[in-house]
Amino acid sequence: MRDTLDFYSLSGCRDLLFHVQERRYSLGEIEGMLATLGLDFLGFEFESRATLIDYQREYPQDPAAVSLRNWSEYESRHPGAFAGCTSFG
């Protein structure tokens, strides 16, 4: 947790630890929601391309990097992959 900038400011720490409206979703839950709504996952955006390149090296069968099941497996082996905020579209 010390790697996040939220840890070093009062407002960031409050948001990180005590945010009342925040809910964590697993990638499997997100995959289910998207399927229910008939939506397609288009991919993650990372500040650095290193995570994406590493993922594509491990999952060459998913060159577009859109398999949430694969991303879930990847995250379990690389827990810091989503350490910052993630955006998906």
**Order of SSEs:** HHEHHE
Report the mean per-residue pLDDT as an integer.
Answer: 83
What is the share of helical residues?
40-55%
Shape label:
globular
Q: Order of strands side by side in the largest beta sheet?
A: 1-2
Distance between the termini: 26 Å
Spans with pLDDT under 50 lasting ≥5 residues?
none
- Counted by DSSP, the helix tally is 4
Q: Classify the secondary structure makeup into a structural class.
A: mainly alpha
Radius of gyration: 15 Å
Main sheet characteristics: 2 strands, antiparallel
Oligomer: single chain
The strand count comes to 2
Percent strand equals under 5%
What do you see in this structure?
- With 89 residues, this protein is mainly alpha-helical.
- It is globular.
- The chain starts with 9 loop residues before the first helix and ends with a strand.
- The protein contains four helices and two strands; from the N terminus they run H-H-E-H-H-E.
Summary keywords:
single chain; 89 residues; mainly alpha; two-stranded antiparallel sheet; 44% helix; 4% strand
